[in-house]
Amino acid sequence: MKKSILSLTCMLLLSSNISAQNIKDSVISRYSKFAEESSPEKLFLHTDKSHYVSGEFIWFKGYLKNSTPLSSFIESRFVYAELYGDTLISRVKIKFGEDGFSGRIPISHTIPTGEYTLRAYSQWMANSLPDYMFYKKISVINPLVTDAADSSAELKERDTSVVSFLFFPESGRIISGKFTLVAFKATDNEGRGTDIKGTLFNSRDSAITTISTEHNGMGQFRFYAASNESYYVLTPDGKGGNKRFNLPPAESQGAVINTLNRDGRIFINTMITSDFLSNGAFILAHDGDEILFSEEIKRDERVFILNESNLQPGINHILLIDNNFNVLAERLIFRFPENTLQTVVERDKPSDELERREKATIRISLKDSSGSPIRGEFSISVTDSFLAPAEPYSDNIKSYMHLSSELRGQIERAAWYFDESNTERERAIDLLMMVQGWRYYDLPAILSGDLGANGKKALNKPWYQKEFTQSVSGRASSNFRNTKRATISVLAPEISLAVSENLNKTGNFIVSDLDFPDSTGFIISCTGKEGQKGYYLEVAKQIFPPLNYYLFLPTPSIKRDAVSDDSYLRIFEQSGGYSSIMLTAATVTSSFKVAAKHNPSPFNQTFEKRQIRERDDLDIYAGWSLFDYILGTFPGLMYGGTAEDGSRIMLSTRSSTITGEKEEPHVYINRLRVGSTGDLDKYMVDDIENVAFLRGNEGFLYRTLSGVILVTQRYSISSLARSPDAYFNTIFARPLGWQKPSKFYSPDYSLESDNNAVSFDTRTTLYWCPTVKTDENGQAVITYYSSDRKTRHNISVEGITLEGEVFSLLK
Questions:
Q1: Could you tell me how far CA 482 lies from the centroid of its own chain?
Q2: What confidence tens digit (pLDDT) does each residue in 484-505 have?
Q3: To the nearest 5 percent, what fractions of the chain are helix, strand and coil?
Q4: What is the pLDDT of residues 110-122, one digit of tens each?
Q5: Alpha carbon of residue 717 to chain centroid
Q6: Which of 52, 195, 255, 677 is found 20 to 30 A from 174 (Cα to Cα)?
Q7: DSSP state of 466
Q8: Assign residue 496 a region: left if phi > 0, alpha if psi is -120 to 50, beta otherwise?
Q9: Is the pLDDT of residue 156 over 70?
Q10: CA-CA distance, 727 to 731, in Å (whole number)?
């Protein structure tokens, strides 16, 4: 009997060990699969400045990186940048080119003064929560709009009273009968951290300990949580009284992680109560690239030691999970990147000593800690420090890639943590890990095998692939015939595209591996296997992430006075502001282009006046046949005799065949292609709303050089009010393509033409270049000319070395 019990015990222990090993292997395997196939991308945008005048451009350079070098895929080749307020203002698609992801967004002269959101992302990033896209607050000044909010804001003192006071027990829980470390965050009515002092009390109103903030409204305290006891904090309300904030209730069961960093060694103390421990528990540490270690926990309290040097720079995760991969507790820790790079900026002359329109030279050097030169690439902006002031400690590429990109919500003065002169930064960033350490990686989703970017579960949501090429897709359908073996044709003359393929019975089509800039037109048509008409076509519309109204922390408004307002007005005028607004309000009657009231074109194109006759032009020809009217009033057509069926036909006077034979023009009636010009003899001018004729090359959209006749019948006007996407046989589409590269204009005042171009130079961005490379000596030199304003110039640099180390400089 004892042997049986012993054998059974050994079998259970062996089974338990095998199960634990299987779970550990499964964790490592699934995490590796996630890192290789589904890990997210990070995108940072360097803009020339943060403050603009209506009529200017937002110049930017995007830096896109995989979050882990273990990814099986290279970075996407396209990114998107959007500017929006209450609604979308502009969206551009940027293709990776010689200058990386560089582009610009125009700011219309009609955009009023205010704050707007600049958002950037890759298609792959759309699989994650919108919070993890790149966001930046853009301030716009329109000199013609009085902004009372800005002028009054300077008169008000900031209200620093506590509006929100939140508690964050270390790793998520307060366990009764245990000492607990609790972090907290106090914020004012603007969402910024505010300094506060207070006292912790128990339910019997006995003072336990005093508390105070340490950095940006954050602080921490340790206390013993007694069983069957509750706690609260009292803080002064600034009016002679107190405000009360209750702590989360203590729990009798749970799991806790406590960490302590000492001399480069991280001590990890775990505590798991019996109910949780009985269901199996593992400790897991990962850095976003790989699992650092994973071990089964069989005791209620354990201590693990992790060398900080084994961690990747940035945010690292320590978790307790059960056998079903549920997270019991989580603690984030941060490792600062080693600062081995020295970025040195030298000016040939202080900027505030530059004369009017004087040439200035800036030398930038990259060196490692030993003084050896470093090869790198960076974008650089030089701006007027008064009209476009810089924001100290705002997010830069270093703080974003290592910190902000993995935390939800805006980090207050994020770049402060990467300034080595701040001696309290290590303690401050650990507080940040506790109060704002929401998961960038959804580990339960990763470990369950439900892989999405960031591991986020995407129920009822499309999966977006990394975008390396472009495509056009859609569907053909018909109420009367099957699409099987019908032919779909796609033509885009601007990119020399002409393809035709047979459809299957679904009618779906896709033309992939394309490369097209914005405004490229695609002509898509469908015909049956014997030339039949009557197919409806629709082009698949690209789905973009919904606008996310990101909650920015307030930043100081630009101090506006008579001098600055005069400069902003000059900038507005020099960019064509007044003329733009006047033209918007005026009715222009001298244009040669007209928009037909009822457009006869299936492509909804505009016409020159000579090309189209409207109803008012046709009235005097009442009683004429439509055939005779067109032949007699539109140049470029001639009588072509009779067809086999006896109907009259007309021909284009322009030869369009190799043999020089003249052909009939194409005829469209109510946007539908008809068989012959003889069909025009069936109508009288009285029946027609409008008629147009396109000669020779003007008919390129219709793939003919023989001309195109377009007719709209009067009785059919109501039927034409439907969507242009529903027209038979042929549609015209302009999907969003990549923005054509453009270069920032920086005047060369050594040239007379540039010197005479403007009477008074008030540029706020004096120089912008998206790509500057250091030479073999680690140096790069740029030159620019000062404006007509005598002021200091800010230099903003964001870049990356050939070894992949990011660097930033603001001077």
A1: 41
A2: 778 899 988 889 898 988 888 8
A3: 20, 35, 40
A4: 889 999 999 999 9
A5: 42
A6: 195
A7: P
A8: left
A9: no
A10: 7
